[in-house]
Amino acid sequence: MGGGTGAGRAAGGRGGAGRGARVGGRARVTDAGGGLVAGVGARRGVPAAEVRELIRAALAGVGRGPGALAGLATVAAKAAEPGLLGAAREFGVPLWSFPAAELAAVRVPGPSAAVRAAVGTPSVAEAAALLAAGPGARLVAGKRVSAPAGRPGAA
Predict the structure, then answer these.
(1) Residue 143 contacts by C-beta under 8 Å, 6 or more apart in sequence?
(2) Phi and psi dihedrals of 22, rounded to 5?
(3) Is residue 39 part of a domain?
(4) Residue 107 is part of a domain; what is its CATH number?
(5) pLDDT tens digits, residue range 65-76?
(6) Is residue 48 part of a domain?
(7) What are the Cα distances from residue 13, in Å, to 18, 131, 140?
(8) Residue 104: inside a domain, yes or no?
(9) In a 3-state reduction of DSSP, which class is residue 87?
(10) Phi-psi region of 88 (alpha: psi -120 to 50; beta: other; left: phi over 0)
(11) Is residue 114 classed exposed, middle or buried when 0-12, 13-18 and 19+ CB atoms within 10 A define those classes?
(12) Which tens digits make up the pLDDT trace of 32-57?
């Protein structure tokens, strides 16, 4: 997966959120009716603080605070990543994960060949956010990427 953290937003219901496991992945923020969903993708070892700060920045970019966050979403391969789980705990929200094949079926504006090679889907952040937000969801903020020198990143 890429080095950095991305965030965006989608509007829609949370009907699809229950389909994933309750764990995390790459970052993209979505409006899930009752709150926002952040899709998250990361390299192994990304610190929870980095994920948390990138999500906070994405939320601030659309005029919202952490209280608006309903959950985080990711690819199943990253569901047990300590930094993602830690960020979800710090926000007090669940993390949902989806199989790469399910994410690959979601049409997104920013597919990545590098992400496809790493985890088997061209999108984690955008696709996970859209799936978790449910039918009718739309992205409302762009990805944010951060990869501090010498450290693993999230996107």
Answers:
(1) 6, 7, 8, 27, 28, 110, 125, 126, 155
(2) -90, 75
(3) yes
(4) 3.30.420.180
(5) 999 889 999 999
(6) yes
(7) 12, 10, 14
(8) yes
(9) helix
(10) alpha
(11) exposed
(12) 556 789 999 888 899 999 999 989 98
Residue 18 DSSP label: G
* 67 backbone φψ class: left, alpha, beta (φ>0; ψ -120 to 50): alpha
Domain count, the chain: 1
Give CA separation, 108 vs 27, 99, 138, in Å: 14, 16, 10
Q: What is the pTM of this model?
A: 0.77
**How many Å apart are CA 153 and CA 46, to the nearest integer?**
5
Q: Is 61 a member of any domain?
A: yes
Amino acid, res. 56: R
The residue with tokens 């390299």 is 43
Asked if residues 35 and 62 have their Cβ atoms less than 8 Å apart, the reply is no
Please give the residue range of the domain that contains residue 42.
17-133
In terms of Cα–Cα distance, which of 74, 86, 22 is closest to 50? 86
- The three-state secondary structure class of 47 is coil
Q: Give the pair of three-digit tokens for residue 45.
A: 């070892």
